[in-house]
């Protein structure tokens, strides 16, 4: 391999070279980044013409930017560079259409061409990530590439490429690129072409494997024998709420459960991880374009606090939940519950205990890792002191709070549950303390952030005033309001305030604008368009819980289902109609949970109507072999 770079290292952001189309390559030596110029993670996000390119200055960012400038198309987001080799289309920005992308293994009889992406597998210097470069020239015995994040050295004077990679052609016309051991293996090259000759064919997935299956466990056992351990506080609270040892409220369903294939779970895991990433990108984009925040309905005085939360606490997410429709027709996400998600105890504990009680052997518990992942996340958190778990006086919140308290305590962190706010007081120093006089510094809550904002909207005339988020009249011994607690400058809250943005339905039109025709997204708009009317649509308030105020309308303008609620006065979004599959007597929604932003388990919620609401049941979900 001939290297066309100098040996001198450079600081982060230094121009290394300029490729075709004037596309610049920059140094990605993060250890030398100027903290004043890059004060937070948002500063590292790269946009070009308002389109997200990637993380400054990684290899994927350069490849996407080069393709956009020179070809007019980009590829969908990936977690690691080597995953690009599995993509099979790119999106042309101007026409908003997908174009075919084909992969050719190193050694293929289809030779590389200028403009092709060159992909490395994970390993060597590219451990865990892989690498991507753009082929700029094809010579008789070598290729030249342009790239970022290979090293931190400038390209040689006069060179519009970073390096050469030697090549040999075999007797059958097979084209091989040299792979130094330290770099790992070159997977091959990617060409935007209709010609699939010599390409790597992605095995066609049997779409039937995406269908959720209903099973009945044949057993003589009944529910008469208790199976939840009421000596454990969270399980006792669950039994109290359910009025017995039940998984679902319908007694006749006790032996019923749902199953998905390993292929379906793999799809859910991939989609969950990628969707978390693009929701984060959309959140950052909204904060970079303040005019968009108007559609979210936030009080003006709160916005600087949201921005500060994003800048300082981007990675401090403990748990969240995606809601999906999954069937042979595909996978579509409805929304992201980033703040105050529910059902994690049902998925992380109850469905597993239910299966053990009935001695079910088919498949594996789809939520078996959730609790241990939560413990690991709390261990890695920035908590340095006692965590107060805040909840409302609600039976469902009782067991959610106790379940999370158990995870926090298992992580070795002191934790106390606070039911309601009456035991909290202001002290003489303007600090909120618990019943024992211990200052409240760290909080995990079941309350939604929006509840605190609504409280303030009702009490303060001018929501732009500083008094909207301060409590200058707090008196010693008074009980603080929820907003006082969650917005206190000395209290750190999980989930962070920035989760207000991805949890708000106004993020859905932003996602569709940034990632149109993404296979897991549904077309969504702030206005009811003719296109949505023709397809059928769902109207939903930008903030709302438990399916409240949702209406489903088909392409003939017939209402399929609707639910009332307390959010009818809020602004709405309009999302393409994509009904839940009906499996047996219920419509079934798949819920996936993230821990620290990564997939951690799945469960189902079911309802005899097409809208999942507060009273919709959780039932057990098992993952089975494809066979």
UniProtKB/TrEMBL annotation:
SUPFAM superfamilies: Cysteine proteinases, Glutathione synthetase ATP-binding domain-like, PreATP-grasp domain
Lineage: superkingdom: Bacteria
Record-linked Pfam families: CHAP, GSP_synth
Peptidase C51 domain span: 34-178
GO MF, one annotated term: ligase activity
Keyword terms: ATP-binding, Ligase, Magnesium, Metal-binding, Nucleotide-binding
Family of this protein: In the C-terminal section; belongs to the glutathionylspermidine synthase preATP-grasp family.
Listed name of the protein: Bifunctional glutathionylspermidine amidase/glutathionylspermidine synthetase
Organism placement in taxonomy: Bacteria, Pseudomonadati, Pseudomonadota, Gammaproteobacteria, Alteromonadales
